[in-house]
Amino acid sequence: MTAGASPEALIDQLTIDEQVSLLAGVDFWHTASVDRLRIPAMRVSDGPVGARGTRYDGPASLAVPCSTALAATWDPDLVERVGHVLGRETLAKGASVLLAPTVNLHRTPVGGRNFECMSEDPYLTSRIAVAYIRGLQSEGVASCIKHFVGNDTEFERMSIDSQIDERTLRELYLVPFEAAVKEAGVLAVMTGYNRINGPFAADSEPMLRGVLRGEWGFDGLVMSDWFGLHSTVEALAAGADLEMPGPTRFRGQALLDAVGRGDVTAEQVRGAALNVLTLMDRVGALASEGPGPELTRDAPDDRALIRLAGASGMVLLRNVSDESGTKTLPLTRDGVRRVAVLGPNAALGQIMGGGSAHVTPTHVVHPLEAIVERLRPHGVEVAHAVGCTINRSLPQLDLRLCGPMTIDYFGDPDDLEQDDADPALTSTIGTARLKWVADPIGRSDANPEYGARISTTFTPDVSGAWSFGVESVAPARLLVDNDVVLDNAEMAIGGSFFGTGRAEVTATAALEAGRSYKLDVEIRHRRTGMGLGGVNIGAEAPYAGDRMIDAVDAAAAADLSIVIVGTNDDWESEGWDRAELDLPGRQDELIRRVAEVCPRTVVVINAGAPVAMPWAESVPAVLMAWFPGQEMGDSLADVLFGDVEPQGRLPVTFPRRLEDTPAFEHHPGRNGVAPYLERRLVGYRWYDTVGREPLFAFGHGLGYADVSITSARMLDPFTVEVDLTNTSPRAGVGVVQIYAHRDGHDGADDDADQRLSGFAKLDVPAEGSTTTVIALDPRTYQAWDVNTHAWMEVPGVHELRVGTSSREVAERLVVQMR
User: Catalytic: which of 225, 588, 751, 753?
Assistant: First the structure.
């Protein structure tokens, strides 16, 4: 290749075979190289909470708050700074493209990947997504926004037909993608697994060539989701450039044959290959020597930002005063001698959801340790009890009880039986949950055979019969001091790893506290249909008492109880939706019983999406922490103890019951179809329009300072000036929200009562005031016209509602549009 050659010059030097080779990955994470012209491979990496790199057992990564937590900050400037961190993380993994952000809407609160998404509202999602992309791409890497479009359920996720009418698509589900293209200049788009009104997303010519490339002028790369391409001719004609992963199923020789038959033109191939080269050129990959090494970076400034972002997204939902008029939060040490920190997510917080978004964090600060660090130096006793468990399977092996963990890979699974067999590769790992999506030894075989032995020392902190569990794709066995404790070779396939693996097998071993045991897990991976491999190692200590009674007793003896409840990746993960809003296990019972014996009880919800709270009125304080990233414990302590002002606001409505939600009657679909019959009435739009009372409204969130909106005025129809006042002695934060309402309806029965059209987040000094100017969404007074297939101005009287949530309005401004 001539140094500095442009993609346009380079494409004409490629043969048709070489152009076709660029249109499919060669493995899970790399595009093809063309050695003849010195075109290197390009690496992509999963996001959106970090850049994992090519291996689930590879170098650790910084783990930022989940996307819902980022949206809960209502702070695009902060999110843009987080985007910079993710860009630097992507480069550290030798990658050029981060597969993020996810901007599908929260159509229902039980969507399995809601934590990967941002909000139920398209405008808020678009503002957060644009900031995320700008920060990420400013570091010289590409954002691949996903999943285009209507990929809103995990039910039958590889085939479900999302049937969405034109107006709903335009006014809701397409909005974040359009903003990403037109405002942020996103460089890549990933199609969804689902069908869109018939065709698969990657085959949808109306969406890809019509809307994305035609109307919006997108000139970047379109890639399929992994195994989300289903055709040779239709996908290329529609505008899907890159099939992922490789080796190819629908490109390669199949595409060359289609060209030979005349089903695909050489010009179509050339255009798609040029899009691949152009993206490589834009991120510097074309001029590189290929993907770089995968490294861990653990910059203190980035960790501090993750801590701040985690705290900034936490939402104070409830905070009532006691008889003396003192609010429960922030916590003080006055009169506090003993604190009970309770719940299944207290000692081991959940920092992220499950599935492809998972990364191995550089470290994790858990809630219990952070609270203990704050209190014990001041002589406050901290008691801990789990209260109940929520795991569907055994909890992940606690690496804090383990020595260094290594993994040996062997080219032949039978080498595990040979004492003198040398491993082909040895590395250290920092997780007990591993997934392999390619040959871990680096061979070119897409469906390899190999053996793996994970080894560590395990030093239990409790004596008795420990439970161990293994779920895996390939046959696996667990050994303690070389004795086989369990072997799952006879288990049937279909219970784990997206249906390709075995369900968990458990067994017990009598262990002595303080004694170190050799712990090994051996996996014999034979050829499978997808080439997918993986193993989850679980362990649970014996418990002689009653967890619930012990927690209630600890609360009864405490001056203050902090109950940390929620979900984990057994419940919120790619691959399945939640079946209900209820907290799993006996957590509701735990909260009720603790509140009965300890009036001063704070409930912290550690989950990625709304949960039901039948106990909400019986506790004085409730804090939504989301999945806040690896600095979780310190972020939480910062908010609980008042070092950081609560400033998160809900990016989704919290319903009282699942039956109260707008898509309840239609989700998840049936007979291969997901009808979006609620149409434009999603989230708060539905609650506000039909008059249904939520548990907590969209946009709701409390602070410790007393900040209020004192006045608002219109500078012009698209600009509003708002005054805020803080009457308290501590600095506060105001999040002003403006909702647009129009008198009468546009003739459709799904016309929403109001829609978010602008917002601003600002600091308000103690006992002071401030003023902000808010620019409204340019489409505030527009609607999509299905007759002209274009945006139209809606004349008449409009009302701008200025407030602090969708239900808390401080000022109303009238606008007459002609």
Answer: 225
